[in-house]
Amino acid sequence: MIKRIIARLDIKNKFLVKGMHLEGLRILGYPEFFAEKYFNENIDEIIFQDVVASLYKRNQLSSLTNKITKNIFTPITVGGGIRSIDDIKEVLINGADRVSINTAAVNNKKFIKEAVKVFGSSTITITIETLKVEGKYKVYTDTGRTSTNLDVFEWIKEVQEIGVGEIILTSINNEGVGKGFDLNLYDKASKLSKISLLAHGGARNPDDVYKVLANSNVDGVIIASAFHFNYYKELLKKKDISLQGSTNFLMNKDYKNLFFFGIQELKKYLKTKNINVR
Amino acid sequence: MMKKPLAGIINISINNILSIKRALEYIGYNTLIINEYENIEKFDLIVLPGVGAFKEAMNKLIETNQLKSIEQALQKNKKFLGICLGMQLLFEKSEEFGLTKGIGFFQGNVENFNKHSVDQETFIGWNRVKFTNEKYFIDKKSIKKDLLNNAFYFIHSYFVKCRNQDIEVGISSNGKLNFSSIVKHKKVVAFQFHPEKSGKSGLLLLSNALKNL
Predict the structure, then answer these.
(1) A256 — pLDDT class (breaks 50, 70, 90)
(2) ipTM associated with this complex
(3) Phi-psi region of A160 (alpha: psi -120 to 50; beta: other; left: phi over 0)
(4) Who among A42, A74, A89 is closest to B197 (CB)?
């Protein structure tokens, strides 16, 4: 199997944002510029995630999806605030190939069953956000804001039984802070998963990506910060971004040790390590 | 300026026809969406895309009378492109949710991965294609290595088993199972994968395949 390298764009209003531990959002610029750049750099897939949609119970992703996907001929998954069959239809019509669902899946399993029936397994991805508390992996919703009593590994089994096509597993502990992937989590989860499983949260350098691909059976990795930080300077030259993006924070000392790497650089590195990538 | 060829895209409700429309426009076509029976005379190319269930799609084609447009296009030897479910629909029958009869242009059946020794029963991701007849996909201008060594984007739980190997121009595998990933006969070419979602190589492959039809 070819391992997939996927870029995730977190979106708030019409801007690309990035935080740490799924919080502390900062504006980086317009998502369409980043998406087009990633497409030209040979990304395998792009995920757009409306990071506040489920919290405020509103949807704005369909018009944005339509705009962002205009010049991009690569698979697109859209998530954030998807709660109904009509919500799914709306994003699919506007250029998405698949949808990812988190909060609504936990709150309403019937909806997921229905979605699988209407759109087919391969269209429905479940995002699972997990926080390790006292040695136990618990499921969170609303982009890491709301805790549940669900155990991650039980939930992985359950969503497979419902018939979804894919799972995105996000480690809140490791997300946006660049301390590498939680190898134990992904090893255990990929052993349980008979369907496509993607790792998200923690890529600090190409070797971290290699490690999670070599030490677990995940089908791909999702990277946000490292790619955004790698390309933002180049994209900053575009007038629209420098006007809109409050990127001064990137100069602050907290961000001095920024971690970043390019898509092609990562793929080249993985090939030298005999990982099958495109 | 030369007039652009016109592609008619058959709309089977729940599929993402925006991507295929944009891809065809990118490689130089004008496009029109076909929602019901339409006289196919004015089109240079008919496209049958599709994501979803075989039976539902077949019923829809019958209900909307679009099946008649498709049959006329095939009879009149129009250029015809099938993608994903659109390729599968062109075969004789599918075992998805009981046996369903298909359009029957290609000889063979559609089967489920879950009865075979495969890596993924629902395959989502990039996969390589072995081209058994390279000349269909390469024109002199394009670079052979770039195109043929690349991978393409697949998303499917069912695959096609051709009865006539002569139509098979691309083969891919899932675990130990080999299946037809591109078929071609007369002026019809069909892809199991999504060339419109397979980056620049996908667009080039699509463009060449249609030029050489």
Answers:
(1) very low
(2) 0.91
(3) alpha
(4) A74
Tokens of A132: 């390790």
Does residue A277 sit within a domain? no
What is the tally of structural domains in chain A? 1
- The H or E element that residue B10 is part of is strand B6-10
CA distance A65 to chain B (A): 11
Residue B55 DSSP SS3: helix
- Please give the single-letter amino acid code of residue A91: V
B6-211 is classed CATH 2.40.170.20: no
Q: Does the annotation mark A50 as catalytic?
A: no
Residue A14 has pLDDT above 90, yes or no: no
Other Cβ atoms within 10 Å of B101 Cβ, number: 12
pLDDT tens readout for residues A154-200? 999 999 999 999 999 999 888 767 678 999 999 999 999 999 999 99
Q: Which of B84, B111, B162, B168 is catalytic?
A: B84
Q: What are the boundaries of each domain within chain B?
A: 6-211
- Is A129 among the residues known to form the active site? yes
Nearest CB to A95; choose among B15, B16, B150? B16
Residue A91: its chain B contacts at CB < 8 A?
none
Q: Is A1's CB within 8 Å of B125's CB?
A: yes
The CATH code of the domain that includes A183 is 3.20.20.70
Which chain B residue has the Cα nearest residue A76?
B197
Q: Would residue A278 count as lying in a domain?
A: no
Which pairing describes strands A220-223 and A196-200: parallel, antiparallel, or unpaired?
parallel
Domain that holds residue A73: 4-272
